[in-house]
Amino acid sequence: MPVTTIDPRPALVVVDLQKGILGFPTAHPSDEILARAADLAKAFRGKGHPVVLVNVAGVAPGRTDVGPRSRGQFPPGFTDIAEELAPHEDDLRITKHRWGAFHGTGLDSRLRDLGVTQVVVCGIATSMGVESTARAAHEHGYHVLLAADAMSDKDLDAHEHCVGKIFPRLGEVADSAQIVAMVNGEGRD
Asked: The pTM is what?
């Protein structure tokens, strides 16, 4: 799964690596996912590329689920971005109320204003927030690159299906170390 290219103006989109979500069980250890996402963020910031930190703070209207989370009521700190990502004041912050980071958030406009043509997506959950964000990025015409080892899901089969079947149709799939190397200009001809 090699990366073929990093556009001159990429952005990293980190989906739902927030305190409440990181407390849920996942197929791959969330601390490892978080560490790889932090490495990606550090590389992007080091080259002056945008980092988008996405959190979820609600659900789509019209849901019939019962319970506090379905009504958008979260415990204190649930929506806080993980400190391990070392959020910077220059990072774009997106709070979403749907699975994907594009719907109703203004993310597309903000990225276009910055001249972004490629998005690198990572986070939790692979089959929900990450996939929805990647699909929307593809539909908006961005070059999509998915950091397979910087994402996880509560369901291993769902994660593997997305990484193996869905994501290659949306863009490139690579490991975070390969992406970091490309962002840093290593491995280019």
From this structure: 0.92
